[in-house]
């Protein structure tokens, strides 16, 4: 159900921007964009990666200064531009996707450290920090031990700490960038309840998410950007995911079940009774040549731990694994790669890619043996290999030597996939391959997955989003509390049936 708090309350905008333009290196990032937020409203800012969402937020918070002609009005006062100090003092807060928190510091220090910052040295009042943190968490209806280091808590609790920190400065507008990307369904539901409470208390929330079902559930209005331009502002009531997707991309995506019978194909991977105490138990499954096997379930079900065991990063305590009919047991991921197993991590930013390094270096890092000549790396072989896979997967880049961080999330993910395809794997494990990737890029990634399966590659597709495995896998396994508890054929089972089993 939508939250129309802002729409039913004050229709006069708290924050309004008109004629916003921004250019970087001759590229128009924003083109005469207008945007507004009402008091207590939950407003979605939607668009593909590169559509201008982050640029717009950085203009609102004073990180960037818009071009001449911009009009910004906040709480009835006009500005030609915001400064970071003005935005902070006015109660405009941003919770970025990486949260920008300090894992080694306590919860209290993370929430209240800005109150200790000033123009002159002074002693830290830890008692006051604890009180500030406790009060901020109480406003959210949350109780945490504020003396524990932040790293003691899971990502869901860290997200709440980031929200609490925003409230310390008397937030009036809070921008949330992909706040649910790493949360389970139950954690997501809890976070959305917190957003509703913020809205009810008069705090405006601007919600940025690629999960369109959440957008429709929580928002009263949706502003859509495409290629730096405003497409329009729409009421969430009556809107559908497919319609938002069409507005964001300018394209129509027809989701159809891709499942095909693969029972006659040779078995590539076989697991029998595989167990790792405390993480997963008695897992038996097969993956055939050219088959995409989907594994879904809530976070914490043991899916990633199973994948890491197949990749040699964790070691099973019982059971049997076989690849192409031969027993396997890996002591390291190097042995798994040599055997023909590739693993795309769910954490692209810190585990999947090395952000400061070049596109080329990231792509070849797992297949260096292919580009070595005479004991040294051959630049010609390296560039040829990179050129081949960039073309094969349709990655949009400038130069091979550009940092991987210069690419959009979707293109980064294609490079991450290319990195593993360059190793010539027999089995490719994709762990949450669309985290942080927009809807248009998601479709492209799953087209790649389907194409790879057609070449005979065996694929395990792991996702906590049931529609992803339903539409893109040949079979779907439901994993719960470390066990396989259900198997579904998407050609026979309905999406609703699998979602009910997983999310109930």
Automatic annotation (TrEMBL):
<dbReference type="InterPro" id="IPR017871">
    <property type="entry name" value="ABC_transporter-like_CS"/>
</dbReference>
<dbReference type="InterPro" id="IPR003439">
    <property type="entry name" value="ABC_transporter-like_ATP-bd"/>
</dbReference>
<keyword id="KW-0472">Membrane</keyword>
<dbReference type="GO" id="GO:0016887">
    <property type="term" value="F:ATP hydrolysis activity"/>
</dbReference>
<feature type="domain" description="ABC transporter">
    <location>
        <begin position="262"/>
        <end position="504"/>
    </location>
</feature>
<dbReference type="InterPro" id="IPR050107">
    <property type="entry name" value="ABC_carbohydrate_import_ATPase"/>
</dbReference>
<dbReference type="GO" id="GO:0005524">
    <property type="term" value="F:ATP binding"/>
</dbReference>
<keyword id="KW-0547">Nucleotide-binding</keyword>
<dbReference type="InterPro" id="IPR003593">
    <property type="entry name" value="AAA+_ATPase"/>
</dbReference>
<keyword id="KW-0067">ATP-binding</keyword>
<comment type="similarity">
    <text>Belongs to the ABC transporter superfamily.</text>
</comment>
<dbReference type="Pfam" id="PF00005">
    <property type="entry name" value="ABC_tran"/>
</dbReference>
<dbReference type="InterPro" id="IPR027417">
    <property type="entry name" value="P-loop_NTPase"/>
</dbReference>
<keyword id="KW-1003">Cell membrane</keyword>
<keyword id="KW-1278">Translocase</keyword>
<keyword id="KW-0813">Transport</keyword>
<protein>
    <submittedName>
        <fullName>Lipase</fullName>
    </submittedName>
</protein>
<keyword id="KW-0677">Repeat</keyword>
<feature type="domain" description="ABC transporter">
    <location>
        <begin position="15"/>
        <end position="252"/>
    </location>
</feature>
<keyword id="KW-0762">Sugar transport</keyword>
């Amino acid at each position: 159900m939508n939250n129309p708090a802002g729409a039913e309350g004050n229709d006069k905008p708290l924050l309004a921007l008109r004629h916003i333009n921004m250019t970087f290196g001759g590229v128009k990032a924003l083109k005469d964009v207008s945007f507004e937020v009402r008091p207590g409203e939950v407003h979605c800012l939607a668009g593909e990666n590169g559509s201008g969402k982050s640029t717009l937020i950085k203009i609102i918070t004073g990180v960037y200064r818009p071009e001449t002609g911009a009009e910004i009005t906040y709480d009835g006062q006009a500005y030609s531009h915001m400064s970071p100090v003005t935005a902070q003092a006015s109660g405009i807060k941003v919770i970025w996707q990486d949260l920008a928190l300090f894992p080694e510091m306590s919860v209290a220090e993370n929430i209240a450290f800005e109150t200790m910052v000033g123009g002159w040295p002074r002693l830290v009042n830890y008692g006051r920090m604890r009180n500030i943190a406790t009060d901020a968490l109480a406003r959210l209806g949350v109780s945490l031990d504020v003396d524990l280091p932040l790293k003691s808590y899971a990502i869901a609790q860290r997200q709440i700490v980031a929200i609490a920190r925003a409230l310390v400065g008397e937030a009036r507008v809070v921008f949330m960038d992909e706040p649910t990307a790493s949360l389970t369904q139950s954690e997501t539901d809890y976070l959305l309840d917190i957003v509703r409470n913020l809205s009810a208390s008069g705090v405006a929330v601007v919600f940025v998410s690629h999960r369109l079902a959440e957008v429709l559930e929580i928002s009263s209005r949706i502003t859509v950007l495409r290629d730096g331009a405003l497409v329009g502002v729409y009421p969430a009531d009556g809107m559908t995911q497919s319609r938002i997707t069409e507005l964001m991309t300018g394209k129509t995506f027809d989701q159809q079940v891709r499942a095909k019978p693969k029972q006659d194909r040779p078995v590539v991977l076989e697991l029998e009774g595989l167990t790792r105490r405390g993480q997963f138990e008695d897992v038996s499954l097969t993956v055939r040549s050219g088959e995409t096997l989907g594994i879904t379930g809530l976070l914490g079900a043991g899916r990633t731990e199973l994948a890491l065991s197949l990749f040699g990063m964790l070691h099973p305590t019982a059971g049997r694994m076989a690849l192409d009919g031969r027993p396997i047991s890996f002591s390291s991921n190097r042995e798994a790669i040599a055997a023909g197993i590739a693993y795309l991590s769910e954490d692209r930013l810190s585990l999947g890619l090395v952000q400061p390094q070049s596109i080329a270096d990231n792509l070849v890092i797992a297949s260096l043996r292919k580009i070595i000549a005479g004991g040294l790396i051959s630049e010609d072989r390296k560039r040829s290999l990179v050129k081949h896979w960039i073309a094969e997967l349709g990655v949009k880049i400038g130069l091979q030597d550009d940092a991987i961080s210069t690419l959009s999330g979707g293109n980064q993910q294609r490079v991450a996939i290319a990195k593993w395809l360059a190793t010539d794997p027999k089995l490719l494990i994709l762990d949450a391959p669309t985290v942080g990737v927009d809807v248009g890029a998601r479709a492209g990634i799953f087209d790649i997955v389907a194409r790879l399966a057609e070449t005979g590659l065996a694929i395990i597709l792991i996702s906590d989003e049931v529609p992803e495995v339903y539409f893109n896998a040949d079979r779907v396994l439901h994993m719960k509390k470390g066990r396989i508890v259900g198997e579904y054929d998407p050609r026979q089972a309905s999406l609703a049936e699998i979602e009910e089993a997983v999310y109930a």
